[in-house]
Amino acid sequence: MPEEIVAFLKEDLRIKEIYRNMVFQKIIDRVARERNVTVTPREIQGHADNFRHEQRLEKADDTFAWLADQMITPEEWEAGIEHQLLRKKLAESLFGREVEKFFAQNKLDYDRVSFYQIIVPYEKLAWEIFYQIEEEEIGFFLAAHLYDIDENRRARCGYEGKLYRWGIHPELATRIFAANPREVICPFHTEQGYHILMVEEFLEAKLTSEIHDEILEKMFQEWLENEFNYTIHNLA
């Protein structure tokens, strides 16, 4: 059975990914020992209890049934939880104090904007729609619903959501963050087509717990990749 699993993973081109994750875990274990970062049984139990509550595994029998379905033992589940918590605690130990500085240096990238857009394939059509919106012959949302080239965006009447500046194409970001709320931005061209944009609101960047965790994970993952490359180079 183990040989069959390995063969399948090789055929499915996942053996390299699993190997990388194994090396990552060895790096985490080693550096955690060096820095005296540990996970207590109480922390593991607390994480397990939270998971059981979220999954509505209130009874012990329900938990054992779930573990059997996942083909793992309680000990293996606890070991997996320990690895997750150790990774998180090591990341905080290594980079927790640097997150605020990184955020301050890159604050503009974490500004968010809520906006709508219409993308059409032809310049003439884009300008016709723009002038119709300007003359209030048609509303922006209805125009997006009728003319946008993307089916999903048509269903959302052009709504793109609340996005970070870093997550928006640079050309779009330049135009969006220079606009005023509710202003319809005249058509311009990218490889996607001809865009008409409208900003709903700007959201100034704040170092929330969510952004803190995003930055921490980014810094930790970059460090882990560097450690991985160093380890593999030394083994070669």
Automatic annotation (TrEMBL):
List, in alphabetical order, the Gene Ontology terms for molecular function in this entry: peptidyl-prolyl cis-trans isomerase activity
Q: What is its EC number?
A: 5.2.1.8
Q: Show where the PpiC domain sits.
A: 110-201
Keyword annotations of the record: Isomerase, Rotamase, Signal
Q: Which Pfam families match?
A: Rotamase
Superkingdom is Bacteria
What reaction gets catalysed by this protein?
Answer: [protein]-peptidylproline (omega=180) = [protein]-peptidylproline (omega=0)
The first-level EC class reads isomerase
Keyword Transport assigned: no
Q: Where does the UniProt annotation place the signal sequence?
A: none
Q: What is this protein called?
A: peptidylprolyl isomerase
Organism from which the protein derives: Pannus brasiliensis CCIBt3594
